[in-house]
């Protein structure tokens, strides 16, 4: 990226930082409910080359669009909020760091490049805001720890992008380790690295992008979050994490049926994340397949955040021989993941895509991902 940066800004960058996208194996919408999730960082990354400036300007360019954006480093929340595209996340991260940490922070110029697909549900936004935060942490000498970075990244989503999200994505992207998933406990605030062992077991993870795009700022995400809060309030618990799986049935009929279904999804998906992590820890990663597939049924029927094209992708992957499949991420569009035997991956990818087309949907884009390291300095 050094050459592209020099061509754009006329000087070498001070460094290049990157952050991965993520897939979540299991545990969906559990983050803002104090539950568990088991994501990993993927080998698709967003890179940001940055050079500090002597003045107070921020200039942002990407290697895939011609226009560059410019703003003062002390730009207000409203300015960051009004920005569009990739610059919104970079300006947003700079704004949140300066405000929350009360630091001056010099101007800078930044070039962004990425192979994390956008709108697919693999956290392209968390990758960009996290790459920006690790870069500015170093250049501005902030000494932040990863947990603090997670909180600041979430603020960018909540305040700048207006997406009322939890901390799953930032935690995954900032804490990921190659060949590991990370078991996140959002009540305890802990993160445990779990060696995946996929390669040794001959397993591969496919991402099946439905091409149905989602937007958590305007879509059903906020509504689901409110329904979970409603369920917790009626049950008299601080978060749905306080409920054990065998308590859920007793709440049927004591709250609106759809609110009870949301509760059931959250409680059972936390249990599935716990069981999946346990199997992986025991060196039995193949056996998580059925948990993934159950997790999808729970999203489709109880959380009602799936879409027909993703249901079709999950069914098609299973019919083609996947060990398990489910929608990953916040839903209302995005992608499914399928756990497959590496030797069958290419065949399953084609057969599943064909079957989705036969079911009347757009041909999905299918790609394999490996568990990769979290946000870091690359050069
Ligand atoms: C999105 C959100 F950003 C996360 O916080 C999480 O809630 C996820 O949807 C669902 O598990 O990615």
Automatic annotation (TrEMBL):
Superkingdom as given in the UniProt entry: Bacteria
Single GO cellular component term: cytosol
Pfam families xref list: GalKase_gal_bdg, GHMP_kinases_C, GHMP_kinases_N
EC number: 2.7.1.6
Parts of the chain that traverse the membrane: none
Record-annotated GHMP kinase N-terminal domain positions: 89-175
SUPFAM superfamilies for this protein: GHMP Kinase, C-terminal domain, Ribosomal protein S5 domain 2-like
Domain Galactokinase N-terminal: 3-51
GO molecular function per UniProt: ATP binding; galactokinase activity; metal ion binding
Keywords: ATP-binding, Carbohydrate metabolism, Galactose metabolism, Kinase, Magnesium, Metal-binding, Nucleotide-binding, Transferase
Residues in GHMP kinase C-terminal domain copies: 277-352
GO biological process: galactose metabolic process
Family: Belongs to the GHMP kinase family. GalK subfamily.
Name used for this protein in its record: Galactokinase
UniProt source species: Agrococcus baldri
Gene: galK
